[in-house]
Predict the structure.
Amino acid sequence: MASEARSGLEERVAGALREAVREAYGLELNGVHVERPNEAVHGDFATNVALANARVFRRSPREVARNIVASLEAPFLESVEVAGPGFINFRLSSRALGEELEALLAAGEMYGRREASGEPVLLEYVSVNPTGPMTVAHGRHAAYGDSLVRIMGAAGRRVGGEYYFNDGGNQIRLLGESVAARYAKLFDREWPVSDPEALYRGEYIREIAEDLKDRDVDRYLNAAPGEALPEIMAFATAWCMDDIEATLARARVRFDGYFNEKSLYESGAIEEVVEELKESGHAYESEGALWLASSKFGDDKDRVLVKKDGSYTYVAPDIAYHRDKWSRGYETVVDVWGADHAGYGPRLQAGLVALGLPEDFLDVELVRLVKLVRGGEQVKVSKRAGNFVTFDELLDEVGEDAARYFYVRSSHRTEMNFDLAVAVQQSDENPVYYVQYAHARIASIFRRADLDPETTKEVPPGDFAPEERALLLELFDFPRVVKGAAARREVHPLPTYLETLATRFHRFYTVHQVLVEDEGLRQRRLALCAATKNVLRIGLGLLGVNAPERM
RNA sequence: GCGCCCGUAGCUCAGCAGGACAGAGCAGCGGACUUCUAAUCCGCGGGUCGCAGGUUCGAAUCCUGCCGGGCGCGCCA
């Protein structure tokens, strides 16, 4: 059962307010809503309808507010008052708060979660080329994408995550040559390469070469390079894919599917879309290449689909790939890309529209770059040069929880300065521990009481202290936060929320003893703790972070 | 030059379907553990919300211009 089976307090207040406006003025107003005031003295919820509509009624805002209040009927409110320039402040009754708390506990792990409905959405993210290990920059994509899938799923979207392995382009050939050269070197032999300068140099190239030698010994040395290279490429690519998948698994990043670019070549899907574009007149030959008339569809200029040498540019397989997504039944797909691909969107979009797909089929979320800094100085990172820091190394240093939390704490739309020195040193100060600690503290209370928070469901009637009220209202805000984050495709509202929630709890904990003699009071506070623990666990879970029982 | 994004406290960042005195963490200073975990809590100091206009009863939030920074503008991916 989803929590929305019973409407949230916010909606109840807003509903009563709408009713009062209708009663007082005999009309419907748009955008009548309530919000949480910053200050507790301004009540639990507040509205600015009177301020916003005073002009319509040609009366002062305060007068309008008083008029609306006079028509308001809401037994779940303890008090309603007109304040300031014309705000209406609402204060909920303890009884209403208690009922809502019971609803939260009844919903359990489903709290804030909506039943899946609507059109399926496919989110593609990470999609790191299998030419080396994941770097700390890729980690941000992984943390963002995986959390977003979880959040959208919780908000009721039918969403799946997919990883696109670019195992078809010429970077794979380059990887193959890099490994082959290294492999030959293990036997003190030379391997003819097209461009020695362009080879990948990372330490992992040596590892792959050694693994290749372990498996096949000197088999490739005397084979014609034309025969051996494809096999080495396949080996190296598979090696990298395994490595990437292992890192992702470790970081608790899950995908519903992996898609290989190579399959598009093998199935003829690329040829097919290229032919189709030609036939529809959206692709033309010029200067020995085949061009996509993308400028007709909003791109700055036309783009090459098939190069002079007959091979495809990146766009062609990508169009085929996205058309495949379409034919799988998705009506919306979201691609998570690095900011350095910003200019690429219009091109792909143009190709898809040229094929007759709707313009709103593809949505792109750009994740801003991660600038690597060491001791305040920027580090130039290049996978090819091999001087990068891997995601695995970061996980070794700070742990999965701290790493994932750190990545999604700030908006994916802002640049991130990643100072390795600080990241490690800060792992102790990472706010994730602040949030986790609240969870562990609650677990400790239940251990002491020898009770199971999962079976704590009842809320005896009684009043709530200010710290309890603040905590409750924060708890009840959770579904709205999840919904809003999903709608805006943002992850960082969750950490922000969780830290506020943890603050509310720590404050409550400092002021009030939970395990007191008075049975009603004790039970109410235990219920509050159980609810907090529940929301913390769900919230951390949406970020792929553990909620520890002890710390 | 054109396009997209960013500019909030010493640092890292929230807040931006306009609202009541601009928030948090870290860093600095000072307090609180015989009581459910002090990885906590309380207090103090610290801000022309890049700048200038505009819309509005009201702007960090919306609009315009400018300044500063990032990214992109390949028959690379």
